[in-house]
Inverse folding.
């Protein structure tokens, strides 16, 4: 069987910082109107990706702060949840994004904390899991959303943390990884959500760091890129999900960082800026954030430091007084 | 956002594409506005359902539109025909995006909440059909588990299904994963299951040695073997009894013996209690049904602490695998997965000369699989330390000599809790976390000579430490401050190359001397 991977050119691509800034700043403008409208159903998260990415490479500066905060307010619902865009329904995914953006803007105190806490805690089920909204879909992604969102507001003791941790533990698999629900297959993105939740809860002792760390290290392919599951193609977003988890577990030296950098840099769009899922594809803010965030964890260029648990600038996490748990190297 | 190839276009092509986009955008806006308006007018009828179908077919991820449909369906008390149409719509949407969380969930929700007589068996067939087309779709595998439990499909049948999938393509990690879950749930006879799985996995791995799915599964099967012993050492220090374990105790296990008071945890692998009315000198670990799992008396050391619990029958099978791996490696000496599994099996079975053989092959792995060379370094460090402990654990030894073992990581440092003289010199500890030394609480003399140290960050407060050898490192002067935590430290040994001695003196306690050798 041929291994699934991509082939890179032999030359390392140049780092086009200025173009990335232009690319990120152009969102919301004419140039991306079509994409932006068609992606309206996740716009709040789109803004979090774009603004966090911009913060990291633009000296922590975010343009049009008031306009952005107004937008968050326009997505606020009386239940305490946030929708991706006006007219859409509130959901835990976009509630987290809204809180993250407010923290980036240093305006989280202006949010209706009590209402948000009430919205999030009502979504917790008897088994400790969380549904994404009132329609009942359960997923460990939502556990992470709940824990991250409330801890950013300093309120993570308002949910049943013990049960939340128990549920995550029940999603652990033979390979040390985690899936979306008990029984579900391990997957790089869901592993990040589960390990991230345990990091916030201070319960990384529940992770078998050597077993999981090795499985994650095996995600690195000959191209240097990381995939999210065995025998899958590499993708820049897994540079974040997989690499940040390795970092949290104190085992990021188990892969070749130089080769990972080369793969991420190869996924830049050297004409218009931005990063795509893999070399040669269309760039988007999602992969631009996760590419830059992974480069930040490897201290590339002058990208500002990122927190591996929250995927937010370290300076913001420090300002909020948060200390998510990490493990040390063996 | 995924798999969209960037294509070069001419100006004319771009203009045409822009016009096309503009048309699509207009259509999208008109439709979604129409749907939202209907919703705001509380329209819960078949027409309203029809109005959003096209929108979802081209973009199945708009959750709010699915939510509106849920509201309508709850309101309508729909006929069988409407329910079937709705199921058909989700199928169509999944053809557009097989990874659409919201389309998968809508289907599940519909059968759970609206359909009065959901046909879960039909769902199971649908999952089978989809998985034959897209064999690694984890949404479908996850949904299949929900469906299988709804229609109470026997585990045997699901195991048979995973077998079919694996036989058509060994490289189906999702199917291997599902097998691991089905076995755990069945609580079947572990031993016979393990033996039959090992032979299945062997044929898969040998068919295509470069495919990792079966190898990972095999590593799990081997890794599930655990040492029979828990307790490494029990010893008395002043008025306390310390108990050192080789791994964390399972949740419902208990430690008993030596009086009524409870054992307290120093960390997960070190337990202690104050000496009081000793009723016996025996300490026992018991499981949830009070069966004794392990026991030891005070001032004793357990031999063979790392030996695994393997039955004769299983040993036979594993030895057979070791032989076949040997043959495979003769034919394909560069097969990384075969080599790694060979090392793991050697270490598990510990035949004659196994250790030398392990080290030789780990060295090969570092070269063959250089991306993960640091993983192999750390694995080797663990093996080296375990080997040293297994071969040097007699009672009266105060010294630990791990000089020059090429260690890059600390494993089992807690097992050196009682040792007074510890030599870790000539290793590469440049990237390790010195905090791992925190369990060396009885240590009086410690050598970290020539360990490539650049700083002393996180050096723990070792209250009994008197002499610390730091020769042949390049440690920043300022980081000597860390050593002020060690209250009994009398002497730091440095070499002549160490300049800026005065700066170091400023950083350390006055009671500590520096000796230059
Ligand atoms: Zn991606």
């Amino acid at each position: 069987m041929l291994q699934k991977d991509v082939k890179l050119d032999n030359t390392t691509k140049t780092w086009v910082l200025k173009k990335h800034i232009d690319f990120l700043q152009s969102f919301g403008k004419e140039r991306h109107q079509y994409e932006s409208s068609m992606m309206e159903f996740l716009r709040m998260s789109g803004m979090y990706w774009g603004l966090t990415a911009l913060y990291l490479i633009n000296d922590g500066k975010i343009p049009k702060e008031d306009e952005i905060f107004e937008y968050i307010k326009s997505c606020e619902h009386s239940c305490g949840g946030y929708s991706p865009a006006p007219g859409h329904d509130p959901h835990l995914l976009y509630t987290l994004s809204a809180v993250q953006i407010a923290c980036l803007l240093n305006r989280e105190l202006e949010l209706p904390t009590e209402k948000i806490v009430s919205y999030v805690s009502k979504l917790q089920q008897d088994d400790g899991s969380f549904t994404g909204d009132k329609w009942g879909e359960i997923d460990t992604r939502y556990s992470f959303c709940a824990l991250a969102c409330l801890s950013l507001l300093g309120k993570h003791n308002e949910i049943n943390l013990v049960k939340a941790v128990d549920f995550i533990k029940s999603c652990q698999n033979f390979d040390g990884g985690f899936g979306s629900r008990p029984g579900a297959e391990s997957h790089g993105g869901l592993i990040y959500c589960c390990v991230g939740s345990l990091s916030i809860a201070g319960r990384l002792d529940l992770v078998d760091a050597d077993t999981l760390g090795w499985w994650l290290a095996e995600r690195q392919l000959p191209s240097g890129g990381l995939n999210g599951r065995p025998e899958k193609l590499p993708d820049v977003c897994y540079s974040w999900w997989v690499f940040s988890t390795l970092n949290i577990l104190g085992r990021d030296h188990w892969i070749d960082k130089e080769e990972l950098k080369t793969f991420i840099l190869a996924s830049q769009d050297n004409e218009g800026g931005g990063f795509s899922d893999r070399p040669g594809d269309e760039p988007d803010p999602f992969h631009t954030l996760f590419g830059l965030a992974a480069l930040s964890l490897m201290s590339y260029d002058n990208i500002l430091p990122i927190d591996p648990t929250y995927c937010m600038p370290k300076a913001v996490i420090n300002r909020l007084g948060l200390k998510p748990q990490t493990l040390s190297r063996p | 956002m995924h798999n969209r190839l960037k294509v070069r276009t001419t100006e004319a092509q771009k203009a045409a594409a822009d016009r096309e986009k503009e048309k699509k955008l207009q259509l999208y806006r008109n439709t979604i506005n129409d749907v939202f308006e209907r919703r705001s007018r509380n329209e819960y009828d078949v027409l309203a359902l029809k109005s959003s179908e096209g929108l979802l077919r081209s973009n199945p991820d708009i959750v709010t539109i699915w939510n509106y449909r849920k509201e309508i369906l709850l309101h309508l008390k729909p006929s069988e025909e409407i329910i079937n149409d709705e199921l058909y719509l989700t199928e169509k949407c999944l053809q557009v995006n097989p990874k659409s969380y919201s389309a998968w969930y809508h289907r599940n929700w519909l059968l759970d909440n609206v359909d009065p007589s959901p046909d879960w068996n039909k769902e199971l067939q649908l999952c089978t059909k989809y998985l034959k087309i897209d064999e690694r779709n984890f949404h479908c595998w996850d949904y299949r588990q929900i469906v299988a439990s709804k229609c109470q499909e026997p585990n045997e049948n699901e195991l048979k299904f995973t077998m079919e999938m694996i036989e058509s393509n060994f490289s189906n990690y999702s199917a291997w994963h599902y097998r691991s879950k089905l076995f755990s749930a069945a609580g079947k006879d572990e031993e016979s299951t393990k033996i039959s799985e090992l032979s299945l996995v062997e044929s898969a791995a040998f068919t295509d040695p470069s495919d990792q799915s079966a190898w990972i599964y095999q590593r799990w099967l081997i890794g599930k073997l655990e040492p029979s012993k828990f307790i490494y050492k029990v010893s008395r220090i002043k008025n306390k009894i310390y108990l050192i374990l080789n791994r964390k105790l399972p949740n419902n296990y208990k430690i008993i013996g030596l009086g009524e008071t409870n054992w307290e945890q120093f960390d997960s692998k070190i337990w202690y209690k104050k000496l009081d009315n000793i009723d016996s000198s025996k300490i026992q670990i018991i499981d949830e049904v009070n069966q004794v799992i392990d026991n030891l008396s005070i001032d004793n050391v357990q031999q063979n602490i790392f030996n695994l619990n393997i039955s004769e029958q299983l040993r036979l099978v594993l030895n057979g695998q070791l032989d076949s791996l040997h043959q495979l490696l003769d034919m394909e000496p560069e097969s990384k997965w075969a080599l790694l599994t060979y090392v793991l099996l050697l270490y598990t079975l510990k035949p004659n000369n196994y250790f030398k053989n392990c080290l030789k092959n780990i060295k090969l792995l570092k070269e063959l699989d250089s991306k993960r060379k640091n993983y192999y370094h750390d694995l080797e460090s663990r093996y080296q330390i375990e080997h040293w402990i297994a071969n040097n654990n007699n009672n009266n030894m105060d010294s630990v000599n791990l000089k020059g073992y090429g260690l890059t990581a600390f494993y089992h440092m807690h097992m050196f809790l009682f040792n007074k003289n510890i030599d870790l010199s000539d290793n590469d500890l440049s990237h390790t976390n010195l905090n791992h030394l925190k369990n060396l609480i009885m240590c009086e003399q410690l050598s970290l000579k020539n360990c490539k140290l650049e700083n002393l960050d996180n050096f723990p407060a070792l209250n009994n430490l008197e002499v610390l050898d730091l020769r042949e490192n390049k440690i920043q002067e300022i980081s000597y401050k860390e050593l002020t935590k060690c209250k009994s430290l009398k002497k730091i040994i440095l070499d002549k190359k160490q300049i800026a001695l005065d700066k170091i003196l400023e950083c350390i306690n006055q009671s500590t001397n520096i000796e230059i050798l």
The pocket of zinc ion is lined by residues A 235, 237, 277, 287; B 2 (CB under 6 Å).
